[in-house]
Amino acid sequence: MRTAPCGHKAPTLDPAMARIALYAGSFDPVTNGHLDVMRQAARLAEQLVCAVGVHPGKEPLFSANERLAMLEETAGEALRKAGCELKCITFDDLVVSAAHRVGATMLIRGLRDGTDFNYEMSMAGMNAALAPDVQTVFLPASPMVRPITATLVRQIASMGGDITTFVPQPVVARLKQKFASTHR
Q: How far is CA 136 from the centre of its chain?
């Protein structure tokens, strides 16, 4: 597990009293949908741990370190202003194992539609069986970000399309740089 520096130090939390939430995903790239869920989660927890999944069988567009940097760059300051400390890590095992390592008692999951709900309910049930002390919390995506997926953002960016309404500006720049050679 690697921890990204998350800028300014927030006050040290008493682990016995802190509400720590873990929000896991590939974040390849970070989208406005991810940020929407993070803003909502900041109202529920004193610390939000964004956990970037690293799996040997998957080849992401951005490295784990790039994804950690994007999370901090796009969400760090806003969450701190909301009174929520941001911590960014990677994990390559079960999400409940990552939750236990960081002391999280909540797993944050964003829902865009019924398809997400059905999949996430199954995952929540399995996670509850593995770690009954960790509660899954579903947060509905705001209407403006419901259609956004990282997969679609990557596809649109790879074809030179306008992604400015789907991802924060720093991510737009990173995607343009990744695909610069294909759009000449």
A: 15
Q: Which residue range forms the structural domain that includes residue 130?
A: 16-143
User: If 0-12 CB within 10 Å is exposed, 13-18 middle and 19+ buried, where does residue 140 land?
Assistant: middle
Number of domains in the chain: 1
How many angstroms separate the Cα of 58 from the Cα of each of 30, 44, 51, 119, 134?
A: 17, 31, 16, 20, 27
**What phi-psi label fits residue 148: left (phi over 0), alpha (psi between -120 and 50 degrees) or beta?**
beta
Within a domain: residue 10? Answer: no
pLDDT number for residue 18: 80
- Confidence at 5, pLDDT banded by 50, 70, 90: very low
Stated pTM of the model: 0.88
How many residues would you count in the chain? 184
| Cα–Cα distance measured from residue 157 to residue 181, given in angstroms and rounded to the nearest whole number | 12
